[in-house]
Fold Alpha-catulin.
Amino acid sequence: MAMSPCSSGGVSSSSVLGADAGLEIRTRSVEQTLVPLVSQITTLINHKDKPKRSDKTLQAIQRVGQAVNLAVARFVTIGEAIANENHELKEEMSVACIEAKRAGETIAELTDVASLDHPESDSHITIFMDKTGVVKAARLLLSSVTKVLVLADRIVIKQIITSRNKVLATMEQLEKVSSFQEFVQIFSQFGNEMVEFAHLTGDRQNDLKDEKKKARMAASRAVLEKCTMMLLTASKTCLRHPDCESAHINKDGVFHQMRLALEQVIDIVTDSRSNGENELASISIYSGIKVFKNKVEGLRENLYFLSKENLSTMLEVILEHTEDFTDSAYTSHEHREHILELSKQAKMELEQLVSVWMQAQNQKTKDLMEDLEVAILKMCQCMNELKRELHSAATSLAADLLKYHTDHMVLKALKITGVEGNLEAIAEYTCKLSEQKEQLAEMCRLLRHVSGTEPLEITCIHAEDTFQVTGPQIVSAAETLALHPSSKIAKENLEVFCEAWESQLSDMSMLLREIIDVFEGRRGEKRVYLSLPRPGKHNAYLKALKPVRLDTEEQAKIAKLGLELHLLTSYVDSETEKWEDQENKIVQYVQGMSSMAYSMYLFTRGEGLLKTTQELFHQAEIFATEGKKLASAFHAFSDQLHDDGKPLLLLETEKLIPMCQQLQITAKVSVQGKSATFTKVDACIQKTRNVMTLLCQLLPLCCRLLRKNKAGNSCLKSAPLWRENRVQAGTNAHCPERTAEMFGIKSLENHVTNMTFLESK
């Protein structure tokens, strides 16, 4: 369970929640509901035990304790109502509610200190005398509240399973229908059930914390979106031509796909590992290179944490995977030769690294450690070049194929020959479609290796499966049309399957852009800030400058500084995730600055979007400008505060403006010569690091003040809203006013309400 409220110093939230290690929170709604409570409790536990306590301090402590107790009491009322509605969970829910109520009352008693002038001399036990008791009560409270929320979440899971079961039962009826009238009636019911399932799974997808599960859910729901329309036309075709074998093959394939997708959704929702987890069993090349480089770079800190055999095996696995590229008939000769050369070089660099490494283990001299650093850098540089070459091979192939197939000539030919009833031509174009399918499937496999993130890997796997399945379905639909060339419904059916193919090609273009963005340092997060100059008059001055990169020696010198910057960006990103309002100006500025700082870190490694020192300096200027805007946003935020923390916030904010000014001046200073340029690079990254370090202090402070102002006297005010939104999802899912993201609902509802046209065809 990973909860971390915005607090600094004292008892951490992880220690407060230590008793709850067995409770895993899988959704954002449960986590966000707990955040205000954790924040209030952490405030209580981390109060400073001063000899003299003002009345204001005593009253504040009592207010927090009372607020916690009142909010828990309201929360327990909701939990008990849920228990009464769901008898199978009643016992567990009731126990958790009793524990929460008891813990809330204990905290209220321990914080009842406002009326005590001399609490130490009174028989009444308070927070000042029994801090351990407060910690125990806090753990019990968080444990019980979390149990209530997780149990309530199980009800949502049950709703999804129940909805899936309804869909499956109706699908079985649809498979057996023998008349149009019966089909219209049952499909209308099926449509409504699919709309409800779409709402429930859409909400769940958005609520999942795990990005891999989100990607798998999105893939399954995409299958259901396309298959719903396919099921309609394929079933109509079978009813119109009941003796046609290819029509039955076509329909059976759609039903099979839908059942697999429905099962996949349930696996994700129930956290079953029967399927899905094996999808990534074969590690992609990018993942393998990332792990390998981390191990190699780890030798700087520890020469003994792994064996040379282990490292050699890791490289062997990576190079085995590159055979997917070198053995592919679609890889160009030039790319194949470069990949083979780099694979050979990687083996040589590893031999050199192992040799120096073994010597350094026996004799840790300064010269040997410097040799080791050079060997590490050369090894990593070689792997970066291999990664770059593989990326180029995969993306150039994808771009060429997608461009070549944009005219959809094979699909058009199948439609024409189907209407003509030309079975020989259908067979000819079937072979061409099969070749196209293999090309696109191979493209997906290669893109998966260079996708850069696990969610994108999953998307590549889904895309390959879609091409493999949709290809034969187009063929069976085309054969049916060729056998019944005058059939309007057979023609419509082929159109639907061809549209699915065209839609997947369009999706591949978007996926390719995402993969390229990730490779170039645009990390594929919620917001990506790109401040590099674009072609045109505004960057004409850059063209006159000689591009300068850092050499291996310079990268070695600046590696530690770059790593520090990387760690700071990770911390800042984690802090911005804690803000409920992701549209907040402070969050937007910070996310943009973090993205720019990350690009600078990548530059120190010879990777990412920044290719030259001049681009780095330009990025530093923009970073400083955004920092000044952020300072203004902090000031505007402080104007809204009436809190003891306001002076500290203003004090820290005042440091930000001169830091950004210094960075801006440094980035603008003209320098000549290699040594002076490197000094300027080092200074820019140091000053960027200093700004990011300050943000690491400002963000938790701001977050804490914001939550404190919002919380008021109701630290659990979000709980009723959570319950209302989540528990009533099943009953309200079909309401048209709900705008949750869902698959093809409008088009599906249109088909459901316009079924009368069936009889006329």
